[in-house]
Design the sequence.
């Protein structure tokens, strides 16, 4: 018995030594090894980020500023800062020495705090003492170029990896591509005569300006710049014939074109100082003969209405403003893949021309509950409900954004002096054009909200319009890496079961509410009939029958209100019961299952040991056989 005790103690000591040794070896030999078991691989760098890191031409240094002391009472911020720090560490590990991360704690009244303010990082006051909280990143390269993320918002965690990759790519590859922008709409910042104040730039313009070298093209000029990497047209109306010819020749020569057309450009409000110009607000745009030559049909006088994708509910649905979900996106094209929702307003559509030699691929489509309508109905619209009058869905899906590629021929003859360099047809590779039938898709109101935040505007996106537009430019430039990062899934995991319960309850609530409204209208009609049946001199007298009718309605209204409250109560009860079940599973069932497994395993192990001890040895077995 004593030997067994000594043996057991020795075994425990040996196991302890092995445990410590394994931990020490794993800490040094297996450093960085981990398993990402999250559904969307949130803690694993995307292939796009790794490609960006592998293609760095300049060394990059990132400075992560985070106020440790000021955030001590804000666990949400500290948790997000940890997430940022882990991502930065992962990026540094995969950068092969081309990227360095430095962590800075800008304590109050310190030199580090002065540096953070000088770099343009935003300080948020926290606590009663008014301490400053910094949570931002500044980046630099060997050419002293600077990029700053002033304040990292936890609500934008979905875009964290993309924002970092974009900053790293910009600093590591300083030479930016040239984007030619021809727009007849006021996308740039400037003076607004209507408000007598400064007009901010469209958010999409600001994003493009950060990523590319934008060269503005005057719509009245007759030529395009010669060194454009990609050309973007926004509402190209009334273009000079020579300029239109230049656009066609640019495309036939292998130039990449992105065009935003519109049957009703709502952002075109005309000149506020010219009454006649204001009457032409909501103008249309097209590309003349170019689209037909590329095998694309487009009618600038027609727009798309959609009952299914129209915004609002059944009573106030606006079928002219479409909120297209993922089901309407082309998942096989990198430009539109993985987008969640894109909003369009008074949009047109494209269709392939039969017999065309080009390939026509829809990127964004309406639902099957859509139909075309006269675009003039959307101008100066006062009541969206009138659009439903006489509206009959066609059962077809309308292409709101398309990619056109393949061989094409010129549709415009060469002006005088251009005959020697005129292209009658596309080069061997063919044309590559992205077409959008709406310009309002780019406007801020369709996808972002601006909110003041300590003297600066914070932009929050509620749709993927900007992502779609930047994807288009990146794709035309061949930059697939940033696109793949930009469209990564959100780390937020919705409680789908709770959402289903809430939707079902809302439907019941809405049905009950509609029933109440119908009863109210019927009662009012009944009261009017009773009043009309009385004599002219008795109009102000309420009869017993009317009083009874009123009392019945009041009683019924109270009853239905009780039903509405019960629906709300049942909804919360269902959610509470679901929460209780989840708590029981997490707190009780899982540990219980582990305990049961441990007990079963222990009993089976004990039985094997008992059988091993009671099994006769060789000498004893031989004696039993010989009868000794």
Sequence:
């Amino acid at each position: 018995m004593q030997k067994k005790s000594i043996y057991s103690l020795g075994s425990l000591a040996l196991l302890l030594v092995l445990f410590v040794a394994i931990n020490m070896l794993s800490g040094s030999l297996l450093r960085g090894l981990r398993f990402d078991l999250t559904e969307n691989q949130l803690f694993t760098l995307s292939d796009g980020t790794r490609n960006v890191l592998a293609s760095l031409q300049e060394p990059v240094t990132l400075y992560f500023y985070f106020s440790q002391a000021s955030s001590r009472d804000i666990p949400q911020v500290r948790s997000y800062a940890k997430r940022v720090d882990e991502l930065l560490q992962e990026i540094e590990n995969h950068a092969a020495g081309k990227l360095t991360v430095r962590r800075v704690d800008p304590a109050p009244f310190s030199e580090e705090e002065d540096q953070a303010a000088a770099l343009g990082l935003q300080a948020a006051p926290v606590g009663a003492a008014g301490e400053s909280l910094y949570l931002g990143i500044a980046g630099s390269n060997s050419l002293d170029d600077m990029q700053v993320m002033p304040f990292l918002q936890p609500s934008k965690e979905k875009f964290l990896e993309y924002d970092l990759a974009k900053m790293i790519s910009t600093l590591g590859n300083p030479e930016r591509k040239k984007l030619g922008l021809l727009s007849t709409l006021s996308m740039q910042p400037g003076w607004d005569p209507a408000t007598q104040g400064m007009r901010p730039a469209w958010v999409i313009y600001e994003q493009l300006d950060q990523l590319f070298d934008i060269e503005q093209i005057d719509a009245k000029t007759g030529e395009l710049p010669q060194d454009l990497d990609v050309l973007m047209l926004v509402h190209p109306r009334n273009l000079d014939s020579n300029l239109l010819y230049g656009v066609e020749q640019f495309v036939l020569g292998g130039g990449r074109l992105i065009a935003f057309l519109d049957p009703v450009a709502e952002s075109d409000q005309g000149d506020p100082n010219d009454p006649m110009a204001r009457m032409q607000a909501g103008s249309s745009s097209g590309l003349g003969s170019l689209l037909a030559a590329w095998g694309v049909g487009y009618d600038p006088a027609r727009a798309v209405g959609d009952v299914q994708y129209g915004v609002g509910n059944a009573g106030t649905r606006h079928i002219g403003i479409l909120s297209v979900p993922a089901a309407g996106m082309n998942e096989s094209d990198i430009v539109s893949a993985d987008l969640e929702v894109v909003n369009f307003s008074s949009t047109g559509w494209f269709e392939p021309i039969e017999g065309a030699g080009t390939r026509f691929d829809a990127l964004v489509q309406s639902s099957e509950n859509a139909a075309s309508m006269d675009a003039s109905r959307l101008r100066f619209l006062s009541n969206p409900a009138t659009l439903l009058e006489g509206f009959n869905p066609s059962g077809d899906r309308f292409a709101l954004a398309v990619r056109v590629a393949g061989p094409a021929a010129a549709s415009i003859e060469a002006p005088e002096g251009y005959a020697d360099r005129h292209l009658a047809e596309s080069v061997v590779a063919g044309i590559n054009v992205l077409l959008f039938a709406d310009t309002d898709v780019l406007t801020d109101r369709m996808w972002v909200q601006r909110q003041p935040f300590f003297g600066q505007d914070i932009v929050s996106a509620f749709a993927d319009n900007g992502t779609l537009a930047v994807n288009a430019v990146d794709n035309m430039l061949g930059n697939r890496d940033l696109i793949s990062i930009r469209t990564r899934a959100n780390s937020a995991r919705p409680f789908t079961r709770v959402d289903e319960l809430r939707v079902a309850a809302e439907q019941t609530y809405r049905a009950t509410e509609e029933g109440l409204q119908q009863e109210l209208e019927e009662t009012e009609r009944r009261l009017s009939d009773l009043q009309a049946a009385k004599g002219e001199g008795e109009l102000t007298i309420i009869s017993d029958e009317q009083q009874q009718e009123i009392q019945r309605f009041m009683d019924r209204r109270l009853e239905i209100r009780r039903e509405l409250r019960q629906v709300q109560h049942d909804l919360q009860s269902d959610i509470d019961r679901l929460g209780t079940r989840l708590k029981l599973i997490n707190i009780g069932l899982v540990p219980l299952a582990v305990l049961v497994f441990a007990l079963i395993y222990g009993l089976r192990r004990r039985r094997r040991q008992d059988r091993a001890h009671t099994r006769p040895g060789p000498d004893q077995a031989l004696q039993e056989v010989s009868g000794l």
In short: Residues 624-628 have pLDDT under 50 and may be disordered. The first strand starts at residue 60 and ends at 66. Residues 495-534+542-582 form one domain.
